[in-house]
Structures are given as C-alpha cells and as structure tokens.
Amino acid sequence: MSSTRSNPSLVLATGRRGFLGGSAMSLSAGAIALLGGAPALARAAAMDPSRDVAILNVALGLEHEAINAYQLGAGSGLLQKSALDVAVLFQSHHKAFFFKDAATTEKMGGKPVAEKSLAEYAKALRADMLKSQGDVLELAARLELGATNAYLGVIPAFADSALAKISARLAADETMHWTALSSALGKALPSTALAFGA
Length: 198
Prior knowledge:
CATH superfamily: Ferritin, core subunit, four-helix bundle
Radius of gyration: 16 Å
Oligomer: single chain
Shape: globular
Distance between the termini: 33 Å
CATH class: Mainly Alpha
Helix content: 55-70%
CATH architecture: Up-down Bundle
C-alpha cells in the first residue's frame, strides 16, 4: 500500500475502463457485461456468489484510483482552500469505501486487489494536463460520474443482496460527489430523469 491513506488529500474515482484494462481476466462474464454497459448479457450470465469477490475487487480498484487521484489533485497546488477542503472530504469517503470493500472481500475469502503506484495513477489520469482548479474539478466530476455508473451497473450482478445494497449506497455517495463538483463548475443538473446508470 502507498502512503496515500495516511495523509488526507484528494481522490477522483476513475471510470470503469482504466481499472478493467488490467483486471478483466478475474471478472465473471456477468460482471464484465454489466461494467461494459450490457445488462442484457449480464442477466444471461449465471450468477454465482463466488463472483461477488471479483466484483468487489473491481470496486476496490476504483477506490484505489480515486484515493490516488484526489492525492494528485491535492498535491497539484491548483485548488483553492474551499475546493481542497471538499476534495479532502471526498477522499475520506473513498477511503471509507475502500476499507469496507476490502474487509468484505477478505471475509468472503478473497484477496483485495493491490494498489498501483501514485506515478501509475498520474500517468493513467494524465495529471500532467491539469493546469487549473477547473481542470482538476472537471476530471473529478468525470471520474465520479464513471464511478456512479459502475456501482449502479453492478447491482444486479451480486448474488448477495446485502452487497447489492452496499453498491447502491456507494452509487448514491458518488452521485453526491458528482453533483457537488458539477455545481462548483457552474454546470446545470441533468434535464431528464433517470440520468445515472444508463
């Protein structure tokens, strides 16, 4: 583990694509279909409780990425104090998600996915392109939206309904993050219903 969990800073949960690129081999067909935006294929795949661990590890990968991304944002020197304070709060949420998901994965007999280096996250997120507070907030909002949709997308894949409920709660927090970041950027709320999870 890196030191990002020991000092409070920022996190931007990246979308499904980045994490799945490195770990798709460990996912069930149903989880891959759901995370890839094909719910009909996911329903056709057999649901097996042992696959819940693989889905949880995808969530852990997203949280690793989020914690490190907010770390990059905090260390960029681009955020004003009010934005930094909110980012630190959001990172604390992602750390709580991580510890909950890791503990659940271990209780189910799984091994939590390993964290990459901060440099790897910086490269994947193109942190070198962040030149202003707006850039950091735009990235954060985009990544929070990706996390929202990923958590909503995997709900039907869980064999354990308690895990599906946790995923829904995580999606709600990610949506709150996205809404706050979008508001800070002066963006309008979605004009149509059912804007998330599609």
